[in-house]
Design goal:
The protein is mainly β. It contains no helices and eleven strands. Helices cover 0% and strands 50% of the residues. Strands 2, 4, 5, 6, 9, 10 and 11 form a seven-stranded mixed sheet that branches. It has a four-stranded antiparallel sheet with strand order 1-3-8-7, with no helix packed on it. Strand 7 and strand 8 form a beta hairpin.
Length: 117
């Protein structure tokens, strides 16, 4: 089982990026998935989650109205559309899944997002 993120890069303030997370080795559609980020010197911050059972979506307060999580069950891909990016969004972004229990226990390697002019 693994998760592989992609789509990060350098973007100017106000710009957009779409992150992708390809899942393999498990039945993607039935598990809760989420996005997190970690900035240098900071703890891991919750961005968004999408529940497997009913596709309920939740967002962290810092990204509500700017980021959108979605999934393509046919291709086992989780997305994070990020709009109106700010310098403080600079971080390594991780996708995660709840495979074995109620906690996020499967993590990708992360993808760097840098917002700077």
């Amino acid at each position: 089982v693994q998760l592989v993120e992609s789509g990060g890069g350098l973007v100017q303030p106000g710009g957009s990026l779409r992150l992708s997370c390809v899942a393999s080795g498990f039945t993607f559609s039935t598990y809760a998935m989420g996005w997190f980020r970690q900035a240098p010197g900071a703890g891991r911050e919750f961005m968004a989650a999408l529940r497997g059972s009913d596709s309920r979506i939740t967002y962290g307060d810092s990204v509500k109205g700017r980021f959108a999580i979605s999934r393509d069950n046919a291709n086992n891909i989780l997305y994070l559309q990020m709009n109106s990016l700010k310098p403080e969004d600079t971080a390594v972004y991780y996708c995660a899944a709840k495979i074995y229990g109620e906690r996020y226990d499967l993590w990708g390697q992360g993808t760097q997002v840098t917002v700077s002019s």
